[in-house]
Amino acid sequence: MDTDTSTQTDDNAAPPPPPQPQPQPSTTTPKRLARGATRPGDRIFLALTRGSGILLLLVMAAIALFLSYRASLAISDDHGNFLTTFEWDTRGTEPRFGIAVLAVGTVVSAVIAMALAVPVAVAIALFLTHYAPRRLRGPIAYVIDLLAAVPSIVYGLWGALILVPHMNGLFGWLDDYLGWTGIFSWDEGAPRAMLTVGILLAIMILPIITNVSREVFRQVPRMHEEAALALGATRWEVVRLAVLPFGRSGVISASMLGLGRALGETMAVATVLSPDFDLHASLLDPGGGTFAQNIAAKFSEADVFGRDALIASGLVLFVITLLVNGAARLIIARRKEYSGAAA
Amino acid sequence: MAKRIDVSGLTAYYGTHKAIDDISMTIEPRSVTAFIGPSGCGKSTFLRTLNRMHEVTPGGRVEGKVLLDDEDLYGPGVDPVSVRREVGMVFQRPNPFPTMSIFDNVAAGLRLNGMRRKSELDDIVEKSLRGANLWNEVKDRLNRPGSGLSGGQQQRLCIARAIAVEPDVLLMDEPCSALDPISTLAVEDLIGELKERFTIVIVTHNMQQAARVSDRTAFFNLAAVGQPGRLVEIDDTERIFSNPSVQATEDYISGRFG
Fold first, then answer.
1. Which of A6, B46, B60, B205 is deepest in the core (most CB within 10 A)?
2. What CATH homologous superfamily does A96-338 map to?
């Protein structure tokens, strides 16, 4: 403000030019519009937030650089093809390792989990918001929250000790009726297979998808539901006309959160699956692997080069997750005009 | 199509709270009946009992009779869903389905009724949009989202959606209170045209509007805050606004309270 006074004194010094622009308060300098960052609180807050933002970017960049560097060391020494080799041997003088099996296993288990979990989660969320008696809504939501709080190793133990032994019936049934497709043929091996993993992952991601979907469905404007009701819509038709379209992008986001967890889940997969490095046409064959499971299984006994190779596989998982998220954003953005956000 | 509404001894509750008490009236077909009265007097609640929308509010409950011609809307075994297909409704804030195109909005009710044939839908959608004086403004963009229209256009879209299913009665809950004067005028003109075909009931806070559009006017009032709303009188609009038979009506209309 000091600099301002000088210009002001100039104004006053000029002997009364008849039309004074504004009647000036006698004691203070004329008010100027306050400029940002002049108040100490604002300055400190700005510095803090900006600093945190920059720090985050730096950390991310450092991680990315470190990982890419270590990964590139491993990949450049890979005597197999990093993308297509069905092997993970990092110890010999001619290491051969490839991510094909891991990529397929990760995607397949996550797809199974999504296919099972999303419809059930959406149904639970709709039940909680539109069908359940008011008194039941709280308790059921609470139980679902509890499911989300169970550590993944507990899921893994439950999966290995209880789920796996109980899968024989389902596997036999699938083999009987759908075995001809090849995807569901079963040679009576232990059911430590991708389907079991997918089912376990589905249970694990159910709570997050349910909770986020429920939040979205709860926010459907009353007036959209009344619009449908007034047209003579039944309860299901209200859901179809007003609730689901409004919640679509929210359900996609919720599913992406679940998918992220399914792609990255480690312990539960590691305890249930009996891994190998082959591609299996049948979801009921024991074997295969996922990125996270492979890293968990091999990391502790790997040498430096072996760890670099695992880091390289982790980078691929990261890229896959990125692509999936990007695709989801694209879907949401394409529907934005119709999303109801404007209404 | 247009039917007479005969209400007798209608009382509505929200939980234990009695919102309107013992209302009886007759609403003539092919006419516009306006409900006026201070806030909280139950005129919107009463309107919503006429298509059984009151009971979708948690705790909402109704006693009494509403005859549509000779059929009791609250008779045993009457499905509220089928009632709402006969008695259409337009709300205070325009509420087109935001995820649907203009065409699909108008066709929504028809599709609920099982109409699938494209040519049939095309015809009725055009007829309804013409009926709502909206056709010329939207005929080139029927596939665009309804939420992209102006507020007044959206409200006329909602009217088109409501009349597409050819209801017997059209209920309007303050249909112009979220609109600018020009859009209000458009909707009022439309109401004048629609009364040739439908029985129209309109709740309004705007007494000039009631005087402009309605044939009959009902004045609702409540004894005190927290008390149930009552029907004070219903009469020809002209008489209500010039020489009402109850003092309270005159006080309200001349702005002495409320």
1. B46
2. MetI-like (1.10.3720.10)
Is residue B194 included in any domain, yes or no?
Answer: yes
- If pLDDT is split at 50, 70 and 90, which confidence band does A185 have? confident
Residue B22 region by backbone torsions, left for phi larger than 0, else alpha for psi between -120 and 50, else beta: left
d(CA A266, CA A58): 27
Q: Does A133 reach chain B within 8 Å, measured CB to CB?
A: no
What is the ipTM, given to two decimal places? 0.89
Give the C-alpha separation, A46 to A54, whole Å.
12
Of B56, B84, B145, which has the smallest distance from its Cβ to A338's Cβ? B145
pTM of the predicted model over 0.95:
no
Task: Tell whether B24 is covered by a domain.
Answer: yes
**In chain A, what are the domain boundaries?**
36-76, 96-338
Tell me what pLDDT residue A343 has.
36
Provide CB contacts within 8 A for A170, sequence distance 6+: none
What's the confidence (pLDDT) of residue A213? Answer: 94
- The parent domain of residue B47 ranges over 5-95+168-253
Q: Which residue in the set B51, B96, B145 is minimally distant from A230, CB to CB?
A: B51
Q: Residue A227 above 80 pLDDT?
A: yes
pLDDT (0 to 100) of residue A329: 84
What is the total count of domains within chain B? 1
- Chain A CB contacts of B95 under 8 Å are 221, 223-224, 226-227, 343
